[in-house]
Design goal:
alpha+beta; five-stranded mixed beta sheet; Nucleoside Triphosphate Pyrophosphohydrolase; 2 domains; 4 helices
Length: 200
């Protein structure tokens, strides 16, 4: 069974939030990243309670595979966080498509370019936050761009073979739980198919 998906409008559709706000939902706070919405939700008893949800800009994550068959990770520091391991990624700019954001973030964070892109999966990362994350695979990556991390990022680029990358997926230091869960809950046969597609 094929794991990676071709890039088309159907596959790149944004998934809806798990929590559906009521028709009377109102924005009660606008922060730098999050918007807070509240509405009156009817309960099973017939009573009403105030429900809340957050909204934020969507993001992209990229699993890069180089021309030499290495997986690229980032060892990052950001203000207020302990150091962590992750895949390249970031926030979609206003009006930007998920693929364009992924290509931009791959170049900015780790200096990589690729002409071979597939979609792995799309998730709503939280039950209380309307926030979609598009996870791409970029194959045949080459170091050809100037690394330009944001002012709030210190990024060291790591190259790992597959067995070392699998160990990182199981590490507490790896921040992207959605990616780890997506791979680790595959059957052994699905994992083998996935690796074959990555390195084809």
């Amino acid at each position: 069974m094929k794991i990676l998906r071709t890039l088309n409008s159907e596959n790149l559709q944004r998934p809806v939030s798990r929590l559906r706000p009521g028709s009377d939902a109102k924005k009660v706070f606008q922060g730098e990243i999050f918007s807070v919405y509240q509405w009156q939700q009817k309960l099973f008893t017939g009573e009403f309670a105030t429900f809340e949800m957050l909204r934020r800009a969507d993001t992209v994550t990229i699993l890069p595979v180089t021309t030499t068959g290495k997986i690229i990770l980032t060892d990052q520091e950001q203000p207020g966080y302990p150091a962590f391991l992750d895949l390249p990624g970031g926030v979609l700019d206003s009006g930007e498509t998920p693929l364009a954001a992924a290509q931009r973030e791959l170049a900015e964070e780790v200096g990589l370019l690729s002409d071979d892109w597939s979609l792995w999966f799309v998730e709503q990362a939280s039950g209380k936050i309307d926030w979609a994350n598009f996870i791409f695979v970029a194959r045949q990556c080459r170091f050809a761009a100037q690394q330009r991390p944001d002012a709030g990022e210190k990024i060291q680029v790591l190259e790992k073979d597959w067995s070392a990358f699998e160990a990182v997926l199981r590490s507490e230091k790896f921040r992207n739980r959605g990616v780890a869960l997506q791979y680790l809950r595959m059957s052994p046969a699905e994992q083998a198919n996935f690796r074959q597609e990555l390195f084809a």
